[in-house]
Design a protein that fits this description.
The protein is globular. By secondary structure, it is α/β, with parallel strands linked by helices. The protein is built from twelve helices and 16 strands. It has a six-stranded parallel beta sheet with strand order 5-6-7-8-9-12. A three-stranded antiparallel beta sheet has the order 1-13-16, covered by helices on one side. It binds N-carbamoyl-L-aspartate (NCD) and zinc ion.
Length: about 350
């Protein structure tokens, strides 16, 4: 087969990204706007975004700091057990919130305000279902006796199935799906889709526990798993299957919170090279013709939003990902920093 050296695709959207706040937001937002028309920006700030007022202000801040005037941040409301439901409903109706995000308590970074009992948010879920707005889920169940590698499976079996059966019309996105079990579940269920990150297509637990040590730069939630999981995710992502789409979960932390610290924060920062990594993967799998479905079509179709009108070109050209992102007092280790990639966006 003739190898392809250049590909033109409809400009992507990132359906799951963390842009943070303050200097960090300023340091990173243009990495996301450089490639994407839209991005679903996660509401897990230090003080989570739970009200319409906070939502409006946060989106304004992002727009102010992003150089590309065409970039559109989309925001889900951070679900808590004590949400003001009339504010929530109004914010959904006015499209301040695109939907809502469910974080189980303490499942990941800044999730201490999350949900400990799903029954306590049935009224929020009902509002979502009635208004035909999506529920975005960090699908991991935390428990003393639940192995960290099984959290996704336990969440599906003990929480997600209940939500699905109770609200059959509710659209659900199981975000950063990380296991074959999770991906098969998405494939088999109507109204449920999934985003897949670059790291879950690149790494297994061998890359997390490397050289008899732990690599904190490969530590994220959900944790990367077994080869069988990686292969299943690659298959679904690259097949053109409409239920899977791009969501980088690019989640920067200052390097001091990743290393030199007893407790490393979970999160991998891939925004400086995420589309290039995805392109590498689709190329490796000989499925580059399906890249556009994953990056630019399946997401808007599921979210019932228009397909973007502009396009980007990626060329086969070796380049080295810079090791760090540096800005004012910020230092972030880039995913794949210092390593070579075969594809590059052409500016
Ligand atoms: C994310 C973060 O740092 O905010 N971390 C992560 O490991 N993915 C939160 C999340 O999406 O789980
Ligand atoms: Zn995330």
């Amino acid at each position: 087969m003739k190898s392809i050296n250049s590909i033109n695709i409809i400009k992507p959207d990132d359906w799951h990204v963390h842009l943070r706040e303050g200097n960090m937001l300023e340091a990173i937002c243009n990495h996301t706007s450089r490639i994407n028309v839209r991005a679903i920006v996660m509401p897990n700030l230090k003080l989570p975004i739970t009200t319409a007022k906070q939502g409006i202000e946060y989106k304004q801040k992002i727009i102010q700091l992003t150089k590309d005037p065409n970039f559109i941040p989309l925001l889900p409301c951070y679900l808590t057990e004590s949400l003001d439901l009339s504010d929530f409903k109004l914010a959904l109706e006015k499209k301040i919130f695109i939907g809502a995000k469910l974080y189980p308590t303490n499942a990941t970074t800044n999730s201490s305000f999350g949900i400990s009992k799903i029954e306590n948010i049935y009224s929020s879920l009902e509002i979502l279902s009635d208004l035909h707005k999506p529920l975005l889920i960090h699908g991991e169940k935390i428990g003393k006796n639940i192995d960290i590698f099984d959290r996704e499976k336990f969440f599906i079996d003990e929480v997600l199935i209940d939500i699905r059966d109770r609200y059959p019309n509710l659209k659900i996105i199981l975000e950063h799906v990380s296991s074959k079990y999770g991906a098969d579940f998405i494939n088999e269920n109507n109204n449920i889709a999934g985003t897949i990150t670059p790291q879950h297509l690149m790494l297994t637990k061998k890359d997390l526990f490397f050289d008899d040590s732990i690599n904190p730069h490969h530590f994220c939630m959900p944790v990367v798993k077994e080869e069988i999981d990686l292969l299943a995710l690659r298959k679904y992502a690259c097949s053109g299957n409409k239920k899977f789409f791009l969501g980088t979960d690019s989640a920067p932390h200052h390097i001091d919170f990743k290393i030199n610290n007893f407790k490393s924060k979970p999160g991998i920062f891939s925004a400086p090279c995420s589309i290039e990594i995805y392109t590498n993967i689709f190329d490796e799998e000989n499925k580059i013709h399906n890249l556009e479905s994953f990056s630019s079509l399946n997401g808007p179709n599921f979210y019932e939003l228009p397909i973007n009108l502009t396009s980007i070109t990626l060329v086969k050209k070796k380049w080295k990902v810079p090791e760090y992102t540096l800005f004012k007092d910020i230092k972030i280790k880039n995913f794949m920093g210092g390593e070579e990639l075969n594809w590059k966006i052409s500016q």
